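ingest -> validate -> predict -> emit
validate: passed (alphabet ok, no gaps, 113 aa)
predict: started
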Amino acid sequence: MEKTTTPETIIKQVERYLETKFKLLKYEGVHKASGIIAEMITDLVVVVLLLLTFLFVSITLGIFAAHLLHSGWKGFGCVALLYFIMSLFAKTLKLSLQNIFIRISISKVFKHK
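emit:
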């Protein structure tokens, strides 16, 4: 027995194929978007934890410098001066730092295939 293919059956098969292809593209898009969102959330958590660590290390450093200098304002002033010098250094490297962050952002977006 030979199977007959009519134009109607071919059209139905093409319709099912296109529906399946559309669903697959939709699921791949959802998968990629959820991966990017999950990575951004975890990066945000890591940044918050690093900022908290930085804050407490700064306070500890200020207290330690105040102990060594026998003056609270001198100890915390030295820490503030250290951060001011670091910010001037970062200002001079601003373009390089921007390029690094741009490369990281682009690699995160295109990493999920």
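Residues 7-69 form the longest helix (63 residues).
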